[in-house]
Design goal:
alpha/beta, Rossmann fold, 6-stranded parallel β-sheet
């Protein structure tokens, strides 16, 4: 990870305009636009408050949803204004545009301690294209650039990786980004043994490089959820109609298994038993079978009791834990016990002094069902960005700050 990266603490924002990239892409109720999970916004507030307390001016850039480069009322960021005003206890100004004379005029009228929120930056197709000219126009809006949007820092988008180029030394990261980097460091560089990484969910393709990178680095790699089925298939097991990601290169999975057998440090564990169902429904007919012998017409929807016991035993004596991806279809009550048991076990370990880092929308949603979210050491605001970091890659958003 990065040493000595410049943060907002290292700069004085007095009489300066801070152009701050935040991630306000939060889940909302489709009808009322009530915010369902405000974690990302809450985590960004200390950065905004620091700039204001310095007597600086704040211009906030964010995206919301996937409007595909066109204006769409349903993706407007206007709904954030009242929420943010309440949290910061000051009025928030709003600009319907992100570039051009109208927004430049609004910024020129800003007083110290005032905040201007720009409309959804993804209303411009140039944002996702990483367009240099668009980035230059955005850079004219501020004196200092601040990246506090970890959740999208793995994207090579204009506001993330191109805009900082135009600020020279006058760029830094916010407190949210700093916490994310420090938390990953606690796992990857300074983790107390035993270190356990638990990977679940469906997408194995996005996690292959992580598994390869973690072998011989961590003590335990627990692989569950739909991620486990391609591995079982690669070992000659029968997975029935279980969800198998589009990743079909079983040779690569076999190679990982061989690589694992040759080293002595990391123990990789897959579920031994699974709860299978005859259809993808909460009240489907179920039975518990070996993960290696799921009959045709049946699908694995949760890890079984033996697997829960095995995984929880390891978590219970781990001192460093990272978790991304549920262990089953936790949205269905009858297939939620694997994910819930793991969450409970991580909470218990955290209470006994372990460091726990949890990321990914579904994983955090599973924690929140049981109100465990405040019992974890750190909740990451970026599932994809966290996963990219675990591949030992420098995120474009971080690279742009230090280069």
């Amino acid at each position: 990870m990065i040493e000595n990266i410049k943060t907002v603490s290292d700069l004085n924002f007095k009489n300066k305009i801070a152009l701050v990239r935040v991630d306000f892409n939060v889940p909302v109720n489709n009808q009322s636009y009530k915010i369902i999970d405000d974690t990302r916004i809450l985590y960004s507030i200390p950065t905004i408050q620091k700039i204001i307390s310095d007597s600086g001016k704040v211009v906030l850039m964010s995206h919301f949803g996937r409007p595909k480069g066109k204006y769409s009322k349903i993706y407007s960021l206007r709904f954030i204004i009242s929420y943010l005003s309440k949290k910061l206890k000051i009025p928030i100004k709003f600009s319907e545009t992100c570039i051009g004379k109208a927004v430049e005029k609004k910024i020129s009228e800003l007083k110290n301690g005032e905040i201007l929120l720009l409309e959804n930056i993804r209303f411009y197709k140039e944002e996702e294209e990483g367009n240099e000219n668009f980035a230059f126009k955005l850079s004219k809006l501020g004196d200092i650039y601040v990246n506090d949007a970890f959740g999208v820092s793995h994207r090579s988008h204009a506001s993330i990786s191109i805009v900082p180029k135009f600020f020279g030394e006058k760029k830094c990261i916010g407190f949210l980004m700093k916490k994310e980097i420090q938390s990953l460091k606690k796992v990857l560089e300074k983790g107390r043994a035993p270190i356990t990484i638990l990977l679940g969910g469906a997408k194995i393709s996005s996690k292959i490089a992580i598994i390869e990178n973690m072998i011989n680095l961590v003590d335990y790699l627990l692989i569950g959820g739909a991620m486990s089925y391609p591995f079982i298939k690669a070992q000659g097991g029968k997975v029935g109609n279980s969800l198998v990601d589009e990743y079909n290169d079983l040779k690569v999975l076999k190679k990982i298994i061989e690589q694992y057998k040759k080293q002595k440090k990391t123990k990789i564990l897959f579920p031994k038993d699974v709860i299978i169902a005859d259809s993808f429904k909460n009240y489907a007919q179920t039975k518990i079978v070996s993960i290696h012998s799921i009959p045709d017409g049946w699908m694995g929807l949760d890890i079984g009791p033996t697997s829960i016991k095995n995984f929880c035993e390891i978590i219970n004596y781990s001192r460093t834990i990272l978790w991304n991806g549920p262990l089953g279809v936790f949205e269905f009550q009858n297939f939620s016990s694997g994910t819930t048991s793991i969450a409970k076990s991580i909470v218990k370990s955290t209470e006994h002094g372990a460091f726990s880092l949890v990321g990914g929308g579904d994983t955090i949603a599973a924690l929140k069902i049981k109100k465990y979210e405040n019992k974890i050491s750190y909740l990451s605001t970026g599932g994809g960005a966290m996963l990219e970091s675990l591949k030992n890659k420098m995120l474009p958003g971080i690279k742009a700050i230090i280069s």
